[in-house]
Amino acid sequence: MAERISEGLYRIPVPLPGNPLRELNSYLLTGGERAVLIDTGFRQEACRQALLAGLDELGVNRRDVDVVLTHLHSDHAGLAPEVVGDTGWIYASGPDRDYLEHADDAHWARRDERFRAEGFPAELLAQNTANPARALAPGFTDRYRTLEPGAVVEAGARRLRCIPVPGHTPGQMCFWDEAEGILFTGDHVLFDISPNITSWLEMEDALGSYLDSLRAVRDLPVRLALPGHRGRGELAPRVDALLEHHARRLEELRAILRKEPGLTAYQAAGRMRWRIRASSWEDFPLAQKWFAVGECMAHLDYLRLRGLTARDWDGAVWHYRAL
Ligand SMILES: [Zn+2]
To answer: Which carries the bigger pLDDT value, residue 107 or residue 98?
Structure first.
């Protein structure tokens, strides 16, 4: 069932079966000649049914819809090509559009290589092709258009300004409806789960960028923050909590490396605390393990770039130590 948030603004909940995020919040803005849909769900039947049922329920014809993406992740972008067909457009930031158009097998091979160099077992990476980030990504389309920083998306009477907030992905964006005080946060700020910050081939310092991007939105006069997943909350206190969360994580990681110098990122990730229901690091679901190691890598990059850790190459993998 779609939720009416205010005049011409609706939330369509899209289930993400088996995923700890549980649900994607797809936002529909009506009132203009064309409706605007912010984010879509995985390229998967359960998502497709819920999203299309939501559009039907709100009386929106798919031929009159353009999609605007907060970021490239498959749970947001997966269904975008099907929604717009050959009549609409998919708007994305330059970096995330570039990724969506070029994340081919060679890209994934380079990413696997980086994870292998961080100690991730090759046999597990070989099984990771079923990872939803990969398996449920959008199919090919030539319907992308680029949203530059500061660009304005018009949806009926609403004007949404694009604010680049790199970190969660290289081109993550928030959309800011200044007149109404509404911020669509995508996965930049979530309220009851901390957004995954992973290492990217396209970003040298993903965590550093993310923390800067948190500070960039903290003091906007936001009345209503609408996240990409789960529930809503107050923006500034949540930003402060996320800044603190990562400061704690960085300290946790330094303490782990002080105690056991020479760990790989894969081993260090296994010693960090995670809010995942698994009895041991070995039992982590593979996709979650991949995100956890990526998160650990982003934190290690942050510490290393600031002279707080160093790493040594043994010819096959990197080993980290605190400085
Ligand atoms: Zn995401």
So the answer is: 98
